[in-house]
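Submission checklist for the structure archive. All mandatory fields must be present; incomplete records are returned to the submitter.

[x] Identifier: Histidinol phosphatase
[x] Organism: Pantoea wallisii
[x] Residue count: 251
[x] Sequence attached
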Amino acid sequence: MHVTIDNLSVTLQARRVLSDISFAAPRAQTVGLLGPNGSGKSTLIRAMAGVLPCAYAGVKIGGKSTGEMSRRQLSRTLAFVPQHAESEAGMTVAEIVRLGRSPHRSAFSTWRTGDEQAVQQALSLMKLDALANRPWQRLSGGERQRCQIARALTQQPDILLLDEPINHLDIQFQLELMRLISSLPVTVIVALHDLNLAAKYCQQLVVLHQGQVVASGAPDSVLTPNLIKRTWQVDATIHRTGRGDMNILYA
């Protein structure tokens, strides 16, 4: 399912955080949100997730405004993982992941085989099988992040919104997670800091600076030395690997 952002502006506590944001995230593609700290990436992700009611009018899913969707409809359609997701300390990994099935179940429905299959698949994808019975408070920062992503995958959403998902992850899990999300048959919008990972695993990029879109499109056309200099204030050169991948080097 595709997502369209049309002239979205967000003001928080009398400060304009986002101004006239417009772009489209095509169905089943991975779109990377890039930009320096404070550029508005997290605010934009939260606006798309429906966390900011003031932004409903500028966000459309499959051509329908999120303001026209009920919370249950929105929860069945998209899953959102914030940067610093928390859970009840006494819950285990499996119990947290099972919460992802809530939008698909009523208060009185029984736990079905399909629910358990969704949970087990998510645990396996995030390599959490051995930690399923471990309490939340005994998890490392990276394990907590993987747990929350597993919960989101258990929702079986059409759209997955991830705010800095590779923070706190070891390099191995950063690469594995980016490979995983780029292979999912859903629309993924992910905020990232690592330009090389974004170039390698995202089909499209949207670059924010001071609350505005300064570039969008395919990684080849977006990540140029001039744009990197203007946006991040660093000198960079672009090289190609033997397989044609972009490799950004900083001076």
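[x] Structure attached
Curator remark: The first strand starts at residue 3 and ends at 12. The mean pLDDT is 90.
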